[in-house]
Amino acid sequence: MGHIDKLNHIIDGLDETLIVSITGLRQSGKTSLAQKFATQYQGSCKHFGSEDPRSLARFTEPKIAFEV
Q1: 58 CB burial (10 A radius; 0-12, 13-18, 19+)
Q2: What is the extent of the structural domain holding 46?
Q3: Which helix or strand (DSSP H or E) is residue 10 part of?
Q4: What percent of the chain shows pLDDT beyond 90?
Q5: What's the CA dihedral at 18, 10, 58, 39 to 10 degrees?
Q6: pTM of the full structure
Q7: pLDDT tier at 25, thresholds 50, 70, 90
Q8: How confident is the model at residue 68 (pLDDT cuts 50, 70, 90)?
């Protein structure tokens, strides 16, 4: 699946739900894909990295973390 196809797949997911998760092996380009998507997406977008301590800390108050 090419980069454009992956971006379109995320958009398709957002047509169905408010949250899309990008999963995959370490070093497979998940963060790069999320960052690329965030720069092109016209709507509200939040990124949470599972290896970023600040991202993980936001989940102590999930209601605040997901506010738009």
Answers
A1: middle
A2: 3-65
A3: helix 3-16
A4: 6
A5: -110
A6: 0.69
A7: very high
A8: low
